[in-house]
Each structure stands twice: as C-alpha cells, then as structure tokens.
Specification:
The complex is a heterodimer of chains A (about 260) and B (about 425). Chain A has 11 helices and no strands. Chain A has about 260 residues and is an all-alpha fold. Chain A has one domain. The longest helix of chain A has about 35 residues. Chain B folds into 2 domains: about 200 residues, Single-stranded right-handed beta-helix, Pectin lyase-like (Pectate Lyase C-like, 3 Solenoid); about 150 residues, no CATH class. Chain B has about 425 residues and is mostly beta strands. Chain B has a 25-stranded parallel sheet that branches. A 13-stranded parallel sheet of chain B has the order 3-6-9-12-15-18-21-24-27-29-32-35-38, with no helix packed on it. Helices cover about 10% and strands about 35% of the residues of chain B. Chain B is elongated, with a radius of gyration of 27 Å. The chains are: A mainly alpha (about 260), B mainly beta (about 425). Chains A and B meet through helix 3, helix 7, helix 8, helix 9 and helix 10 of A and helix 4 of B.
Chain lengths: ~260, ~425
C-alpha cells in the first residue's frame, strides 16, 4: 500500500499538478495577507477558501485522477495485491499530496505573517488542519463515487453533486428546517445537524475561535458549551476523523463488490 | 477705652475661632486624648478637623451630625466595621469631608442598604481618596446635592460568581443633583455607578470594570454628562434608561461580553449626544430601544457582535461619521424603520466603488443584510453564520431587496476610515 502511495505522489509531482496547486495557495495566501490590512477580515477570507475551495479541489482531483489512471489501476489489479490497498493507496496518495500543497502553500504565508505580528498562531494551525481534513474527506468521497461507475461524465456529475450537497444545499435545507420548526426549541437539532456535515463542523469550529461574539444567545451558548470545551473539541475532531475513515470503508466496500 | 474694647473683641473672636472653629481633634490608638472616631465625632463642633492617625479602628455606625467637619486619615487608617453595620453616616450635615481612609467589612443584609459611607440629606459632601473593601454598598448618597466623590476605590471583595442580589452598588446616588464623580475605580459590585433621579451631574474619568450587572446604570436622570470613563468586562455593560439630555463623550466600552451584555444600552433616551466613544469587542455595541433624537457622531465600533441593534419605537437617531470595523453584524433592526438615518459612515464591509473619487462610495451601503434579519427572527439560524449558502442568499438579497428593510441605508458611505475631529 505504501508503495502505491509513493507511486501516486511521484506521479502527481511529475505532472506538476501538485506544484501548480502549491503555487496557487502561495499566491492566494500572500495576496490576502498583504492586501487586506485587517487581520480578522483576512481570516474570514481564508475560512472561505478552506470551506469551499479545498473540498471542491479535492473532489475534482479525486475523480480526475481516478479516471486518468484507470489503466494503471487495472494493471495493479492484475497483480496479487488486495483491492483495498490499491484504491485506498490511491486515495491516500492524492490527498496527502494535495494536503501537503495546502499546508506548505498557505503555511509559508502564515509563517511570514506570524513572524511579523506574532498573532493567532493557533488559529492558523487549526485552519490548516481542518483544510487538510476536508480535502482528504472530499477526495475520498469523490473516489468512492468514481470507483462505482465507469462513465466519466456520470462520475464527475455525481461527485460534483455530492460536493454541492455538502457545501451549499445542506445549509439550505438546514435553514428551511429551522424556519419550518421555528416554534420549537432548535438548538440541539442545529448542533447535531451541524456536526454531521464536515464543512459545517469545520466552519463552526473555526468560528468559535474567531468571532465567538456573534454566536450569541441560547444557541451560541449550547455550541460554546459543546465545542468550546476540551471534550467538545475532541468530539468534533473524532467526528472529522470518522468522516475521514468513511471513504476508506466506502471505497473498500465498493471495490470489493465491483467487477472490473 | 474704645481701643481697648475693640481689642477685646478681637481677642474674643480669636478665642472663639481657636476653640470652636478649625479645631483639630487627633485620634489615635494610644497617646491622644481621643482613641475612637465615634468619640471624636461626638465632641466635634462645626468646622473641626478630626485627624485620625495610622491604625486599625474597629468601629461601625459612626454618625456625623455636625456640619463642616473634616475627617482625615494620616497614614494607613483602616476602619473595620466588623460585619456589624455601615461605617460612616453623614446625616443632615452639610459640607462634611471624608478623605484618606480605608473602610472594610460592611455586612450584607436583605433589609437595609448598608454602605461604607452613607450620605443622607447632606449637601456639599466631599469624599476623596477613600478605599472601600469587602462591602455591601460602597458610597450611598440619598437626597444630598452638590457633592464630590473623587479618587475612591471600591471593591466588594466577593468572588465574581456570587449571586447578584447579595451585591450592592459601588456609588449609588438617589435624588441627588449636581454631583461630580471623578477618577473613581469600582469593581466586583452589582452596578458600578448607579444614578436614580440625579440631574446636572458629571461622571468623569472613572474606571468601572468586572461588575456583576452594569458598569454604569442611569434611571430617570436628566442633563448629565459622562466623559472619559472606561467600562470594561461588566456583566451587562452600561445602561442608560428613561433620561433626557445626556452627553456621552470619549468613553471606552470594552469587552462587555456575554449573552445579555451590551456596550451601551439605551432605553427611552431622548435628545442626547454620543460622541467620540470607542466600542470594542462587546456583544452588542449600542442597543437602542424606544429612544429618540440621538446624535451618534465620530464613534468607533470595532469587532463587536452587533455594532448597533435597533428595537422598535426609535425615532430620529442620526449616525454621522462613525467607523464600523470588523463587526459581525453592523446594524440589526426590529420593527419599522421610522426616520433613523445613517450618513457618511465608514463601513469596512462596504464593497462599492468610488468612480468620481470624492471619498464617498457611489452605491449606497445597506447595513442590514438578509442574514441579520433572519437571525433576528429566528435566533437559531446563527449556526449558518459565514456559510456559503447564506452568502449567496445575502448577495441575491443585496441585488434585489425583498425581505430586509430597503430604506435603511447609508447613501454616502465613506471609502476611508473617518478621522475624528479634535474637539
């Protein structure tokens, strides 16, 4: 499995996608930190990138990479290697190289900023960790989708729909639910619903670190009590980990059943 | 002979002066004629000075009934009320002055408002450099005009999690006009400074922090000025209620944090001016309820949850040349818009452009966005803060306002942060 991970990373390095991705993050990181003088403002911009772009790029990359290396995968499958190792290795390879680009690409601007002003080191680290996790989760999910179908268009479509569901539509439904059941106490429901979507979970976790001020009233108190405490932090991290493990099982399950 | 008579007069006058006016009664633990303050107060006559020497005096309920008395501590004078009663009472005695003493251990009771110093029906009181620790109320002034409280330090000494009802107010004025409160420092009380029916007074340079309820609390107090004060980490911030003609200048409201906390709460305030104040990291910068004809000029709202929160019944509030920077919500609004106006403010969320380079954005800024409106209606929707979906909604709403009040807007938003004028 580790050999496969190594192959994937090498392959990605060779066709320069990782490098491109890294340069993109470097550019974005430096320009946000340099041009918006306001720290909290730039933090919000980074939050948007982490929440929207990282999952999207992960999704696209996962599908693209899988379909591009179909031949290689078929070759590997002919060898006496467990199917699980082949696919999970691919996933880990892609997400590790994407994650490294993210961490290096944004980490350098962060370090530069931190060296200048020495503020909010923990917030930067949290951002990078959550970005890494989100990237890995969505790469995995999109790979699971693409393993399940040979039709490229359909694979791309399903993966994108999945991203759209998680990143945008989910919140829409949550909002509708909140409006529809406005006469009931909704804090617990909102908390649970948020925790079950990795993007929302990442958003709330960072927000609690950032402008906690806004999370007010009873709802805010419920969230703060849960996510602000060490136990809550651990729980949310565990749930993120579960989300990262989910593609592993999905891919294994689908790959085992499928006929190549 | 006549000369002799005149001379006698002078001598008489002199003797009277020495004997009864400006006499100094020294109090000390040993070596003086008088060893307790209570005794000294009993023998003191109008105009006398009671000089208390260093030491710890276990005395309570010292009642001053003679006017124009000065009570002055020399060195470290501690008056320990021993959890029995209030320390000083100034009762129907004008012009009494208390300075340089420390008061301790005034007990809590549910039936009486026991204070370190209680001023009753006594005008021209002057309390300076008094330090009150471990007390129920700090300084309680009732029906006494024209007083000065300066440089006092008041601390209940109670742990911060104590039940609110067992705490008293730091400086509490009731029906007392023309007061000057200057450079006091108050902490751990229920309300730092409490004014009820107090007119024509000045609160200046005080530091009120870490109080359980309000840092400053106004009720039915007209024509007052408060300036250069700092209100910090109070449970509910500062509340100004049911008052007219209040001037608030150069105050700092910072870190008034919590579920029901405000930097400044205005309820039923009329004809007032709020200028050159700074609001930093309060859950709500200014909460306006039923207030009219208020001018907000050159204030800075920085990193608050809500910079300004309007509730119904507010008319003629005018925001001019304020800076709104890094607030999660700039303006929240309930009820009808009425004729409240925002003009020429700086909003760091403003994304418009300035083609003619006159310093004003060409597109009006709408400080109430859809999400703010929604959070007002259904508080739980706050969980969607900064969500991509909500931003799409907000954008759509900005282009074509459907739900949000369309007539709350700043027609000339500033492109650059506004620099305060010097006055």
């Amino acid at each position: 499995m580790f050999k496969i991970i190594g192959y994937v990373i090498k392959d990605l390095l060779r066709n320069r996608w990782t490098l491109f991705y890294l340069l993109f993050y470097l550019l974005v990181g430096f320009s946000i930190l340099m041009f918006s003088g306001d720290f909290s403002k730039s933090m919000v911009s980074f939050l948007q990138i982490i929440l929207i772009l990282t999952p999207l790029i992960g999704t696209l990359f996962g599908v693209m990479y899988y379909y591009n290396s179909r031949d290689f995968i078929e070759l590997l499958l002919a060898q006496p290697i467990r199917r699980r190792d082949v696919f999970v290795g691919q996933w880990l390879g892609v997400s590790l190289s994407l994650g490294t680009s993210l961490i290096v690409g944004l980490g350098i601007p962060f370090l530069w900023y931190f060296a200048q002003y020495e503020v909010a080191g923990d917030q930067f680290i949290l951002l990078l960790l959550l970005g890494f996790a989100l990237g890995a989760i969505f790469t995995g999910l999109s790979m699971a989708v693409s393993v399940s179908t040979d039709n490229k268009i359909r694979g791309f479509g399903y993966a994108l729909v999945l991203w759209l569901l998680m990143a945008v539509v989910y919140d829409g439904f949550l909002l509708l639910a909140l409006i529809a059941f406005r006469d009931y106490p909704l804090e617990k429901f909102a908390l649970v619903a948020t925790v079950f979507n990795p993007i929302d979970l990442a958003r709330i976790t960072i927000l609690l670190k950032l402008d906690i001020s806004a999370l007010m009233g009873y709802t805010g108190a419920v969230f703060r009590e849960f996510l602000g405490s060490t136990a809550g932090m651990l729980t949310s991290m565990t749930i993120l980990l579960l989300w990262m493990i989910l593609p592993f099982f999905l891919i294994t399950f689908i790959a085992r059943k499928r006929d190549f | 002979m006549r000369w002799f008579k005149l001379c006698w007069c002078w001598v008489l006058l002199f003797v009277t002066l020495v004997n009864s006016y400006g006499r100094v009664i020294e109090v000390c633990k040993s070596g003086c004629n008088v060893s307790t303050i209570t005794e000294a107060v009993e023998i003191a006559q109008k105009g006398d000075t009671i000089l208390i020497h260093e030491g710890r005096y276990k005395e309570a309920n010292i009642i001053i009934k003679v006017p124009e008395i000065v009570i002055r501590g020399k060195g470290e004078v501690i008056i320990d009320a021993g959890k029995k009663d209030r320390a000083f009472v100034i009762f129907r005695a004008s012009g009494v002055r208390i300075e340089n003493v420390m008061i301790r251990n005034v007990p809590f009771t549910s039936t009486d408002e026991l204070a370190g110093i209680n001023v009753l029906y006594s005008n021209r009181y002057h309390i300076e450099n008094v330090r009150i620790d471990s007390t129920f109320f700090g300084i309680l002034v009732e029906q006494s005009d024209s007083g000065i409280i300066r440089g006092c330090t008041i601390n209940s000494g109670s742990p911060i999690n104590v039940y609110e009802a067992t705490l008293g107010n730091g400086i509490h004025l009731w029906k007392s006009n023309y007061a000057l409160l200057e450079n006091n420092s108050i902490t751990n009380m229920r309300d730092g400074i409490y004014f009820e029916f107090v007119s024509n007074s000045v609160i200046r340079g005080n530091h009120s922090f870490g109080n359980k309820r309000y840092g400053l609390h106004f009720m039915f107090s007209n024509d007052d000025v408060y300036e250069n004060n700092k209100f910090e980490r109070n449970g509910a911030g500062v509340a100004v209620m049911f008052s007219k003609n209040i001037d608030m200048h150069n105050n700092v409201f910072v870190n008034n944090w919590g579920m029901s906390s405000y930097g400044l709460l205005l309820k039923e305030i009329y004809d007032s001016e709020i200028k050159h104040n700074v609001f930093i990291r309060n859950t709500t910068g200014i909460h306006v309820e039923g207030s009219a004809r208020i001018r907000y000029e050159e204030n800075d709202f920085i990193e608050n949850g809500w910079a300004v929160n309007f509730l119904g019944g507010s008319y003629d509030n005018f925001f001019y040349h304020n800076n709104f920077i890094g607030n999660t919500f700039d303006v929240a609004y309930f009820g009808r818009v009425n004729n409240n106006r925002f003009e020429e403010n700086y909003w760091n969320k403003y994304t418009g452009y300035d083609l003619d380079r006159d310093g004003y954005g060409d597109v009006p800024y709408r400080p109430v966005d859809l999400f703010t409106y929604m959070v007002n209606e259904i508080p739980e929707t706050i969980v969607l803060l900064r969500s991509f979906f909500v931003q799409i909604l907000n954008f759509a709403e900005q282009v074509v306002p459907v739900l949000t009040p369309a007539d709350i807007y700043d027609p000339k938003p500033l492109m650059q942060k506004w620099k305060w004028s010097s006055s």
